[in-house]
Design brief:
By secondary structure, the protein is mostly helical. Helices cover 68% and strands 9% of the residues. It contains 5 helices and 3 strands; from the N terminus they run αβααββαα. A 3-stranded antiparallel beta sheet has the order 1-3-2. Helix 2 packs across helix 3 and helix 4 packs across helix 5. It is rod-shaped.
Length: 106
């Protein structure tokens, strides 16, 4: 025998509430991801922002003359990200940026 009408309505209402909660959590997660991606750029987006190819950007970083980055993790293969503020400062005046960073490290 199946569920009563009242039980089916209650089950449908609970399912609707769970669905709405999942949708709200997904919207919050999406908003947080968009905020993160607006502030932090990966290698491809950073190179594009600086009007460089990815390979030119890699060479710039390997030589120590590029904008500073943040590594997301402890492993060697952890991703690196660049803050948009660092990229803007580097784009505006690369020589001054590198000089200021060298003075900071000394």
């Amino acid at each position: 025998m199946g569920l009563s009408i009242r039980a089916r309505r209650w089950a449908a209402e609970q399912a609707r509430k769970r669905h709405e909660e999942r949708q709200a959590a997904e919207r919050e997660r999406q908003a947080a991801a968009e905020a993160y991606h607006a502030e932090w750029y990966d290698r491809e987006r950073a190179a594009d922002f600086l009007s460089l190819s990815v390979h030119q950007f890699k060479r710039l970083m390997a030589s120590g003359r590029g904008p500073s980055c943040v590594k997301n993790g402890e492993t060697r293969q952890a991703t690196v990200r660049w803050a948009i503020g660092e990229l803007r400062a580097f784009r505006d005046d690369p020589e001054a940026y590198v000089a200021a960073r060298a003075a900071q490290g000394a």
